[in-house]
Design goal:
The protein is mostly helical. The chain contains five helices and two strands.
Amino acid sequence: TGEVSEQVWDVLLYKYLGEEDVGRQQEFYQAHMSGDYETKQSYHECYYEQTREKLLEHIDDILGELDGLSQKSAYGGAVAGDDHPRLPLILRHNDFVRATFMAVRGYYFPDEPEFCGAEYCFLGLQT
């Protein structure tokens, strides 16, 4: 479906606060550890746009890494032949991860420009 779990949003916000305001990061951490859902929610509401931007950065970083690995595996597979028997499994896993991250990107960032890496655009192969 492309939805992100509450835990992922928590980690993204925690990371953002650590870069911007360590004091607020500790307050958020204490709210989390003590089960203070209302305080956590107020932080998420206050920093939604910044956390959302962190999510997009993470998605695009992972998609870029997958593109690089895909290029590397294409070369490695052609040279190594049967020396890497798990390569097809790894490539299928990477395709699954790519599809998952693209679903999240489409769910939360429908108006953002397409992600185009070395081989793939958000909506399919580049032409």
